Amino acid sequence: MSEKIEFKFKSPNDSPGYLLGQITMLWQRKQKKALDPLDLTHTQFVLLAALAWLSKENDNVTQIDIANQSNADRMMVSKVLRTLEQKKFITRHEHQTDTRAKTIRLTLIGEKVLQKALTEVENTDAAFFSILGENLALFNSEMVKLIDDNKSE
């Protein structure tokens, strides 16, 4: 028999990492169910939403901009954007000033799919987090602190 394994926490429910993992898996399952009919993965949705958000203020959104906005790996973003381009949800054009970069834009089809997805995701979020009631704003602000504190790693 192996040596006794020692845990810092008395119970899994005392571990914030364990709880975050559990919440994330449950939440992602609900999001997948909402996005499947639209032929979108959650990652594809996040990148489309990041592109749309950034496009509100900038006509020259690049892959790096999208990666930074979504806190995603640049190589993964590149692969997912290729898939979104194949689905005709986005287009890539030569950047006006940076010859190494491409400008990413939503197509009309992409805009329509994203709008439907936003409605589905926001409704799913509202239902999932409804149990928090008036504590939702505090929960969100605490998550923002965690994101800001760990973003550079």
UniProtKB/TrEMBL annotation:
Q: Extract the GO molecular function terms from the UniProt entry.
A: DNA binding; DNA-binding transcription factor activity
Task: Give the domain of life.
Answer: Bacteria
Keyword list, A-Z: DNA-binding, Transcription, Transcription regulation
Q: Which InterPro entries match?
A: HTH_MarR-typ (IPR000835), MarR/SlyA-like (IPR039422), WH-like_DNA-bd_sf (IPR036388), WH_DNA-bd_sf (IPR036390)
Q: What are the recorded Gene Ontology BP terms?
A: response to stress
| Keyword Zinc-finger assigned | no
- Per UniProt, residues of the HTH marR-type domain are 1-152
Q: Which PROSITE patterns match?
A: HTH_MARR_2
| Pfam families, per the entry | MarR
Q: Spell out the PANTHER family in the cross-references.
A: TRANSCRIPTIONAL REGULATOR SLYA, TRANSCRIPTIONAL REGULATOR, MARR FAMILY
The name this protein carries in UniProt is MarR family transcriptional regulator
